[in-house]
Design a protein that fits this description.
The protein has 161 residues and is α/β, with parallel strands linked by helices. It is 43% helix and 20% strand. The protein has a single domain, classed as 5'-nuclease (Rossmann fold). The two termini are 26 Å apart.
C-alpha cells in the first residue's frame, strides 16, 4: 500500500515514542512510504525549530526519510481545497503520488470534501484499521477494511495471543 505520511506524523515519529513512531516503523517494514519534497522541507524546519535537534541530526533524519521512501514527489500543484497553501501543496503531492491513504494529524485536513478521491485518516485510525481495534480473547483472526474512491483494501490479521 502506498502510504503518504504528513509532516506532523513524521515529527511525532522522531520526537517521542508513541503511535506515530510505531506507525512509521510499520510503514517502512510493510508498505511503500510516500513523501513530498514540501513535507521534507517542513520536517527539517520542525525538527530544528520545534524539537530543537542539532542540525547534523536533523539532516541525518531527513536524509533517512528521503532514502527510505519509495517515492519522493518533487513537484506537484496545490489542490483546490479549503485549506491553507502549505496543506494544499502537501495534498497535491499525495494526490499526484496516488497515495492510499494520506495519514495526518492535521485537523484542518479532516473536513469533509477536502480532496475528492484521497482517503485522509488520522494515525490512530490507520493503526486501528491495520491492527483491528477490538479483539476478543481467543479470536485468532481480525478483518479490517479501508476504502478510498473505488478501491477497497482488506486486511486480515491471523494470530493468537
Amino acid at each position: 500500500m502506498r502510504v503518504f505520511l504528513d509532516t506532523n506524523v513524521l515529527v511525532g515519529a522522531f520526537a517521542s515514542r508513541g503511535i506515530c513512531a510505531d506507525l512509521f516503523e510499520l510503514v517502512l517494514l510493510e508498505h511503500d512510504l510516500i513523501v513530498g519534497s514540501s513535507v521534507l522541507r517542513e520536517l527539517e524546519k520542525a525538527l530544528r525549530e520545534k524539537v530543537k535537534l542539532p542540525g547534523a541530526r536533523v539532516a541525518e533524519l531527513v536524509d533517512f526519510v528521503a532514502g527510505e521512501a519509495t517515492l519522493v514527489v518533487e513537484k506537484a500543484e496545490p489542490v483546490a481545497a479549503r485549506v491553507d497553501a502549505d496543506d494544499a501543496l502537501v495534498l497535491g503531492e499525495a494526490c499526484l503520488a496516488r497515495a492510499e491513504p494520506f495519514v495526518t494529524g492535521g485537523a484542518a485536513l479532516f473536513r469533509p470534501g477536502t480532496v475528492r478521491g484521497l482517503l485522509v485518516v488520522s494515525p490512530r485510525r490507520f493503526w486501528e484499521t491495520l491492527h483491528g481495534n477490538a479483539r476478543r480473547p481467543g479470536d485468532c483472526s481480525h478483518q479490517s477494511t479501508l476504502t478510498a474512491g473505488s478501491a477497497t483494501v482488506r486486511f486480515v490479521q491471523s494470530e493468537c495471543r
